[in-house]
């Protein structure tokens, strides 16, 4: 069944990107609207992230940049964790934020850098 | 001399990214405000693009995404040309736009795809 | 007196939309700038919401959508309460958020859905 | 077959919303990226617009508002035509734009009103 | 009569800011929606610009900056003309755009600078 | 040495704008990325704010407006403090926010006014 495949593929992508803790944090959406949850998994992660043409790291370059640009800092947090999980280095994330400064201005870049710094600390001993 | 180095490095990056035609199109800014032009070259291309931690292709992933997200379609045009010039494929650009659809919505992604399509045609026989 | 009519009409609209609690929460603006408060009531609620061509529910469709699109989540909260108060159903609000996902992307839609879910809980026993 | 159903439902919605002329104008996307076209039809129009909980007119209230708010004026044009086609009146559209002025400011509202006026003229004898 | 005073004050402000040519260009809004036109004049120019606490030049600093930041370049054009008309210098406008570059990024600042340059040319012999 | 001059000039501007407390709050950026910190000081405050063509008060008109327009309320807080420190009055700040209401809509203006009110209180006995 086609729909199940989309949902399953989305679930697999989410397993790669997010820790169990993050995933259960997302689950409150499922209680409010099971249909919306289905779209997030099947379309957002299945149809989009599940495509082969780019690696997950390349996709996170895109995701981190668009979230920073639109000022969606709560989701940026989630995806900085995801980026580290799939192998981006702290240096790459810092560098991405610096590159953004020239394109979106310092206020959003500074805020993103502060968030990244907080997250990096939690990975230290 | 430090300042000259920043400006020179920026000039080198611009040579890699932009054709002579695009570069002369940008020069009208220099006539309006030589100081602003200096900032674009020294800070924008020298300080930011000139850093070693990311490749130019990685930087264009960031640039294309932020321009699409903020709806800066004139500059997007310039950077789609730049991306192709430094070795990104048409497929990669299409894929980047598709990934953005889930993060910024279809209106901006559709507009970007239309622009990309127009540019791709000019590279065909 | 014309001005008073605009202010009075605005006050009536606010009575319909907002609980006493919400209204007193808004009053801190009046202390900071009585003139600005007068504009909010006379122009925002009197001149705009007070027009006959649309119902309050139709106006809240517009208000919820624009607030979600611009990421003004604090005001979105206030207007989800208002929407329920004037007769929109929880299902309609969920549906509006889902429709927005395609136009503004998932990050803002997910954040709005989370906020809506929190509010819906407070209306349960 | 599930996927076909999503695509077919999307096609039906597009028939209701858009004239043949508008639909063929959209088809250039299909040539650039058949996959992206499929997402627009199956997800955008099938999954979102194809849901029963809201009428098409209610959905266009949302669409017009989000496009105006994000300054996507090319798509706004397309959806003002669509709104008139499915039965919204010119007065309703004017009223929606006026309500938006208070929420997004006059610049975008004035631009939208100018666009609406141009379109309304084409419907006169 | 109060309303008339607001409209009259707005008309006076518009006379100071805009040439006859610009003012008649704005009048198409009045044909589409006389009520919206009244709001623009009475609220936008009467209530806001008509206040005494700031000079028109100080208000144009605010207006130019917000228009550049939100990418409302058509209105930016109108207000660059207005700014020059009420006594801002070309150097001040260039400087304002440069300051914005750090806060909104180069793409919007470059676009604004190009627009300013075009306008400045029309004031030369 | 040129670079040092840019950094020193930036440091001087920051001394004028920000209290010691605010400045140390900003220093966490330096720990995360010394290079980014150098750009903020040398480019943001040295190259931009350090130019002679506008006064610091004129620059804060621009900064407050762009921060309000882009919804960067955390940085708005910092710059309302800075504006008061360099001699803007509370009335000027209120007036700037009122002027913005017509250009960006009430939601962001109301939020900014609330923030300003909170800050003004801390300056009272």
TrEMBL record, chains A, B, C, D, E, F:
Q: Name one Pfam family in it.
A: CMD
Q: Which residues form the Carboxymuconolactone decarboxylase-like domain?
A: 34-116
Q: What is this protein called?
A: Carboxymuconolactone decarboxylase family protein
Q: Which domain of life is it from?
A: Bacteria
Task: Tell me which InterPro entries the record gives.
Answer: 4CMD/NDH-1_regulator (IPR052512), AhpD-like (IPR029032), CMD-like (IPR003779)
